[in-house]
Specification:
Largest sheet: 13 strands, antiparallel
Number of domains: 1
Structural class: mainly beta
Number of strands: 13
Distance between the termini: 49 Å
Low-confidence stretches: none
Radius of gyration: 18 Å
Shape: elongated
Mean pLDDT: 86
């Protein structure tokens, strides 16, 4: 089976944390490929994230889990008090692909994502829209097999519910259709970018850490 699922969303609100602040994210979810001719068979996915406010409008982050290892930044383009927040949150990631009854490494997957985060303030909460373009490259362990290259264009919709000073719950749905593809996945590895279907992920992020308050 596939050892990891590519993350299709940022699982975070549009505003940055603020200088010196730290946030830990627990991100369980389900991942599936939606097709009209096959049953929906979601696979569980679990990641943990860590984000740090390097500057007032700049966060640095990392994510580790079944999505592999990902490093990211977030730059807030609007003032913190704005009713509509806009940020860019580019990310680079990679993971190892396993296949077979006795799992063996059959390739590596690399991803570069450029999401735009749009946050609409709803009192203490936030509606988050995340359009994104994402490039994937899968390199097989077999040197005779060409690499798979795929471009995904889609987005996510979530609600950041600020349940206490240091806890935010963020349910999020992400959809990212493959618009361009060249090559195939290594033999024995199922994957939404190598065949038919629209990649879909549902996440329930639990974000621990107190962000910068709105002044």
């Amino acid at each position: 089976m596939l050892s990891g699922c590519v993350a299709l969303s940022s699982v975070q609100p549009a505003d940055t944390l603020g200088r010196g602040r730290l946030q830990v994210g627990i991100e369980p979810g389900l991942s599936a490929a939606v097709t009209p001719r096959a049953p929906l068979l979601p696979q569980p996915v679990m990641d943990v994230s860590l984000r740090f406010g390097a500057l007032e409008r700049l966060d640095l982050g990392a994510r580790l889990g079944q999505s592999g290892l990902e490093v990211s930044t977030k730059v807030m383009l609007t003032p913190r008090r704005s009713p509509v927040l806009v940020s860019v949150a580019p990310a680079l990631g990679g993971t190892v692909l396993l296949a077979g009854d006795t799992p063996a490494v059959v390739g590596q997957s690399f991803s570069a994502a450029l999401p735009l985060l749009l946050g609409l303030r709803l009192g203490p909460h936030q509606l988050v829209l995340g359009p994104r373009a994402q490039l994937m490259v899968v390199v097989a362990s077999d040197p005779n097999q060409p690499a798979l290259r795929a471009l995904l264009v889609g987005g996510s919709l979530g609600v950041a519910l600020h349940v206490s000073r240091a806890v935010t719950v963020l349910p999020e749905l992400a959809v990212a259709p493959v618009v361009l593809r060249d090559g195939a996945l290594p033999p024995g590895v199922p994957g939404v970018t190598g065949g038919e279907g629209v990649p879909v992920q549902l996440r329930l992020g639990v974000l621990l850490g107190e962000p910068q308050p709105v002044e």
